[in-house]
Amino acid sequence: MELGKSLSATVLLILCMTSSANGGNILVWYTEASHWINMKPVLETLIDRGHQVTVLTPSVSLFMKTNEPSRFRYEPFNVSFSLETIEAFMEEFLQFSIYEMNQMSYLQIYIRFMDMMKTNVQVSLKYLDGVMKSDTTMKKLKEGNYDLLLADPIYPGSDLTAEILGIPLIFSLRFSIANNWERLCGQLPAPPSFVPAAMSKLTDKMNFSERVWNFVFYILQDIVLDNVFWKELDKYYSEVKGTPTSACEMMSTADIWLMRTYWDFDFPRPFLPNFKFVGGIHCRPAKPLPEDMEEFVQSSGNDGIVVFTLGSMVKNITTERANMIASALAQIPQKVLWRYRGEKPKTLGANTRISDWIPQNDLKRMYLQA
Ligand SMILES: *[C@@H]1O[C@H](CO)[C@@H](O)[C@H](O)[C@H]1NC(C)=O
Ligand SMILES: *[C@@H]1O[C@H](CO)[C@@H](O)[C@H](O)[C@H]1NC(C)=O
Ligand SMILES: *[C@@H]1O[C@H](CO)[C@@H](O)[C@H](O)[C@H]1NC(C)=O
């Protein structure tokens, strides 16, 4: 046993050494928004370690820009819709999630959400058409002699492509709704008695009725996803392969799932050996802050600071909503850094500072001091 272990360790070590000497040839699946922002530093590190990185990039994207200077190579492919289509869809989704959802009943939210999921799947499949149905692109991918495919599975089709190219597949994922992909495709166990479904708002401490609700929540989400997501994908995959194919089974062929979280960040749950925690993989050592910002955060003393941002997609909110957020933030003892574009809200407190952009990565030094 021990001998076996050290032998395999030696073999691994040799493999690592040879591969770092030659460098792997890595193909990266297209993605969008924060998923792409998260992926980029990983690609930089792969290049630092001597690998070659090629990124499949759609001709239409909000965040992937082939004209941006970078150390990785882009492999562009054509899609048959315009940037305006994507922008309109994103705008609709944001409107829904920041404003409309608050005034809707559960049923209305559900119906609207289903509707948007359906649109989302159709858009995803149009992206996939750009790869699968383009002889030029498929030929280029085959001739690329890639060693592996790295993909964030939010855009489907990477598993199908990895199979066609005959190369291993590595996923990078934060989570899926009710962990549907991890559970049903990745075979990750999730006993409903103590693993709360993602987005159910439950914790690992549940009484009997909450456990029943958790169990039902998993089933309901699985039914929804089956109807709006998997059915469409199964149809597409079956057409491409020419034989009845389960897209979920294809997803299960991923060799490694890199999970962008950490064991102490989520509730305890069983994991499998090919699921690896990589939360914070995109973080870099903190650089010094600009002088005025350093002064501002230090002036908070023992209260610490709050960093407030609505993520990479929300660019503008209504004046009314901005005033509401500003007056809420004004009531807390901490100093607040708020990433906000737009006119300065009237109700902005003395403890809050707004800016177009905040150096989130460099601010983490503050947590470490706290
Ligand atoms: C994309 O479309 C342009 C313009 O029609 C064409 O020149 C180019 O070769 C296409 N690229 C691919 C990968 O098919
Ligand atoms: C379970 O917990 C919920 C939330 O705390 C509570 O509303 C409910 O009454 C509890 N049910 C039982 C059977 O104890
Ligand atoms: C944000 O800006 C876009 C484009 O200028 C506009 O269409 C949208 O209505 C704005 N949203 C809000 C909430 O003001």
TrEMBL record:
It comes from the Eukaryota. Keywords: Glycosyltransferase, Signal, Transferase. InterPro entries: UDP-glycosyltransferase, UDP_glucos_trans. The keyword Glycosyltransferase applies. Residues 1-23 form the signal peptide. It holds the Pfam family UDPGT. GO terms for molecular function: glucuronosyltransferase activity. Belongs to the UDP-glycosyltransferase family. This is Uncharacterized protein. It comes from Anabas testudineus.
